[in-house]
TrEMBL record:
Membrane topology listed for this record: Multi-pass membrane protein
Taxonomic lineage from the root: Bacteria, Bacillati, Actinomycetota, Actinomycetes, Micrococcales
Official protein name in the record: ABC transporter permease
UniProtKB keywords: Cell membrane, Membrane, Transmembrane, Transmembrane helix, Transport
Gene Ontology molecular function: any one: dipeptide transmembrane transporter activity
Domain of life, per lineage: Bacteria
SUPFAM superfamilies cross-referenced by the UniProt entry: MetI-like (SSF161098)
Native source organism of the sequence: Cryobacterium lactosi
Family annotation (CDD domains): TM_PBP2
Length: 316
C-alpha cells in the first residue's frame, strides 16, 4: 500500500494549484476588462469602411460582425472563444487573430529578453564593483546617473538615442528589425531602465548582508572579502532581486509598446497599439490573453527558482 505523500510533495501540489487558479482568474479578469472597455469605445464599422460609406453600410457591417446581438451573448461568445482558443479573425486583416499575435511574439520576446538580461547583468557587475571597492564616490555617481535615467520617460530617451546614434552619427539603424544592429537602440532604451531598478535593489541587499554576523565572522577567520561577497553575500542578496525580476520580465512582455512604436519594431506591442486604434477587438483580446498568461508563467517559474535558491522560502 503506497504511503502518504510527503509534506514537500503536498506543498508543491498546493503551490501549482494556487498558480493555476491565479492564471484562470487573471485571464478571466483581463478578458472581461478588455471586453467592457472595447465595447465602451463603440463599434468598429465606421473605422473599417471608407469615408464615403453610408450609415446603412456601417450598420450592416456592424451587424455582420455580431455587434447587433445582446452584450451578454457577445460576452459569452468571447468566453467560449477563450476556452477553445478561437478569438476570431481580425476585422481589418481578415486573418486569425491568434495567428497574428503569435507571429509578432518572437520579436517582442527577443527585445524583452535582451533588455532584461543586459539590464540585470550590468546591475550585478555595478553592485559587486561598488561593494568590492567600497567607493562612496562610485555609488554616488551611479546613483545620480540612475536617477537621471529614471526621470526621463522611455519615449523621450528613445528619441534621444535615435537623434544621436542614427541621425547625427549614422551609426545605428532606428527603424525595423532588419539585423542585430537594429536591436541596439531599443534594447538600450529598455535595459538602462531595468539596470537602475535592479542596481538599487541589489546594492541595498548587499549592504544589508554586509552587516550580518556571518560576514564579519568569515572575514575575521581570514577569508578574502571578495570570496565572501561572491560565495555567501551574493546568493543571499540575489533572492529578492530575482523576485522583482520575475515581475518585471513578465511585465516587459507587454510593456514594450512605447519602444516598439518609436523604433517601428514589429512586435506584439505595436500590433496591439494598431488594433486598439482600429477597434480590432479579436487581436486586442488575443494579445492581452497572451500577455496575461506569459506574466503568470514567468512569475511562477521565478517563484520556483527562488524557492530552490532560498532554503528559508522552500521550508516555509
Amino acid at each position: 500500500m503506497p504511503g502518504r505523500p510527503s509534506p514537500s510533495v503536498i506543498d508543491v501540489l498546493l503551490f501549482i494549484a494556487r498558480r493555476l487558479a491565479l492564471a484562470v482568474a487573471t485571464v478571466l479578469a483581463v478578458v472581461t476588462i478588455a471586453f467592457v472597455l472595447g465595447r465602451a469605445t463603440g463599434e468598429p464599422g465606421a473605422l473599417l469602411l471608407p469615408d464615403n460609406a453610408t450609415q446603412a453600410d456601417v450598420q450592416a457591417l456592424n451587424s455582420s460582425l455580431g455587434f447587433d446581438r445582446p452584450l451578454l451573448v457577445q460576452y459569452l461568445d468571447t468566453l467560449v472563444g477563450l476556452v477553445t482558443g478561437d478569438f476570431g479573425d481580425s476585422y481589418r486583416l481578415r486573418e486569425s487573430a491568434l495567428g497574428l499575435v503569435l507571429q509578432r511574439v518572437p520579436a517582442t520576446i527577443e527585445l524583452a529578453f535582451w533588455a532584461f538580461l543586459i539590464g540585470l547583468a550590468l546591475a550585478v557587475v555595478a553592485a559587486l564593483t561598488i561593494q568590492l571597492t567600497g567607493s562612496r564616490v562610485l555609488r554616488a555617481i551611479v546613483g545620480w546617473a540612475g536617477a537621471i535615467r529614471q526621470s526621463v520617460p522611455d519615449f523621450f530617451f528613445a528619441l534621444l538615442l535615435v537623434l544621436v546614434f542614427s541621425v547625427l552619427l549614422g551609426a545605428l539603424p532606428s527603424l525595423g528589425r532588419t539585423s542585430y544592429a537594429s536591436l541596439v537602440l531599443p534594447v538600450a532604451t529598455l535595459a538602462t531602465g531595468q539596470f537602475v531598478m535592479y542596481l538599487r535593489l541589489l546594492d541595498a541587499a548587499l549592504s544589508e548582508q554586509a552587516g550580518q554576523d556571518y560576514v564579519r565572522t568569515a572575514i575575521a577567520q581570514g577569508q578574502r572579502r571578495s570570496t565572501v561577497l561572491f560565495t555567501r553575500m551574493l546568493p543571499n542578496a540575489i533572492v529578492p532581486v530575482l523576485g522583482m525580476a520575475g515581475l518585471n520580465l513578465g511585465g516587459l512582455l507587454g510593456g514594450t509598446v512605447v519602444v516598439e512604436v518609436v523604433f517601428a519594431w514589429p512586435g506584439l506591442g505595436k500590433l496591439l497599439t494598431d488594433a486598439v486604434s482600429q477597434r480590432d477587438f479579436p487581436i486586442v483580446q488575443a494579445g492581452l490573453v497572451f500577455v496575461a498568461l506569459a506574466f503568470v508563467i514567468v512569475n511562477t517559474a521565478v517563484d520556483v527558482l527562488v524557492r530552490r535558491i532560498d532554503t528559508r522560502t522552500a521550508a516555509a
